[in-house]
Write a structure and sequence with these properties.
The complex is a heterodimer. By secondary structure, chain A is an all-alpha fold. Chain A has one domain. The longest helix of chain A is centred in the last third of the chain and has 29 residues. The relative contact order of chain A is 0.15. By secondary structure, chain B is of the alpha+beta class. Chain B has 2 domains: 35 residues; 119 residues, Alpha-Beta Complex (Sulfite Oxidase, Chain A, domain 2), CATH 3.90.420. In chain B, 28% of the residues lie in helices and 28% in strands. Chain B has 3 helices and 9 strands. Chain B has a 5-stranded mixed sheet with strand order 2-1-9-5-6. In chain B, a hairpin with a 6-residue loop joins strand 3 and strand 4. Chains A and B meet through helix 5 and helix 6 of A and helix 1 of B.
């Protein structure tokens, strides 16, 4: 029998990570009034998910599934399509970065890079949607630069948080346990 | 290719993306500046009274306005910015506004608009205010029943109109 790329167990894990993104988005509130601050936990979840299911496409599945969930739950200010693409692109770009860097998110630099680019994918989606829909140019002249920097910083912090979580999981013997189960 | 080279390329791509974003924004601003009147800087919000252009809400005036905030009941997020009341008083003065004056804030890109009476806008409790969105455009928010959820708020505001009875 032909072996499936993702096992049912792995797909369940990825679905749980997707749900975790939605829960975190709704439940976790930070007092920071900076755009993109949700990248702190968002990218951390993606990075942990990509290591728990270490296969190309894992992050994309998390992104697409969380995008579907978020769209149906009416999250976001710019409509369902924008919400879906914003969430999905985070996973897809993270996968792309993992593939380009041929890296493992247990490496901090790789985790930060994945966090930064994955999160920037969301920023670029929102920005492009703004251009396509003919949104007015920013009221504040350097607002876009500030938002860009904010997305980069929170993506990087998310990467570090994900990397630290992976370290803690490894120390706790999580990956050894998972390997035994396989 | 070693990891160091890949990371350097990633850094270069990051700078290219930043360059493209800022370049496109600059071109949009230049384009807007050539099309708009001299007294309407790019990104500013034009204010019309009974169809006549009276001024443009510009970022330089933000420091003259007191900052306000509230936590929205729907998502528990803090909306902070500047009251529409203060913006209008700054540009029009109290004499041009009566309780029955209608204040319409609209977004052409979203094809959305909201009309309030001046009395509603003036009431501080209603928190009819502009919040600065992530990409730097203005969003009209409030706690007025019926206009207190995200779906009803006006994102990407690009016009304020006042009509007198």
């Amino acid at each position: 029998m032909k072996q499936r790329y993702f096992s049912t167990f792995q797909l369940i894990l990825l679905a749980l990570f997707s749900a975790l993104i939605i829960v975190a988005k709704i439940a976790l509130r930070t007092p920071l009034q900076l755009s993109g601050h949700s990248g702190l936990f968002w990218m951390a979840i993606i990075i942990v998910g990509a290591r728990v299911v270490p296969k190309l496409g894992a992050s994309s599945i998390i992104g697409v599934t969380s995008g579907l969930l978020a769209s149906f739950m009416g999250l976001g200010d710019f409509g369902a399509l924008n919400t879906f693409i914003s969430y999905a692109i985070v996973g897809v770009v993270s996968d792309l970065m993992l593939w380009i860097l041929r890296g493992d998110t247990e490496n901090m630099v790789v985790a930060i890079s994945v966090g930064v680019f994955g999160h920037l994918g969301k920023f670029l989606t929102k920005w492009l949607f703004g251009i396509i829909t003919g949104a007015p140019i920013g009221f504040v002249a350097l607002g876009l630069l500030k938002a860009f920097i904010s997305y980069v910083i929170f993506g990087a912090l998310g990467g570090i948080l994900g990397w630290l979580t992976l370290k803690a999981l490894k120390r706790a013997g999580f990956f050894a346990y998972m390997a035994e189960k396989r | 290719m070693d990891q160091k080279k890949r990371l350097l390329i990633a850094g270069a791509i990051l700078l290219v993306i930043l360059g493209v974003v800022l370049g496109v924004d600059y071109l949009q601003r230049q384009n807007a500046a050539t099309q708009a009147p001299a007294n309407m800087p790019p990104g500013s919000i034009p204010i019309y009274v009974d169809g006549n252009f009276v001024g443009s809400f510009i970022p330089d005036d933000l420091n003259q306005l007191p900052a306000v905030s509230f936590v929205d009941a729907e998502e528990g997020k803090t909306q902070d910015g500047w009251l529409l009341r203060d913006v209008l008083l700054l540009y029009l003065g109290e004499d041009n506004l009566q309780d029955r004056s209608q204040v319409t804030v609209s977004s052409s890109s979203r094809e959305k608009s909201k009309t309030f009476s001046w009395a509603e806008v003036e009431d501080h409790q209603n928190m009819v205010m502009f919040d600065l969105s992530g990409r730097g455009t203005l969003k009209l928010v409030s706690v007025v029943p019926g206009f207190d959820i995200r779906d009803s708020w006006i994102q990407d505001v690009d016009k304020i109109e006042i009509t007198s009875p």
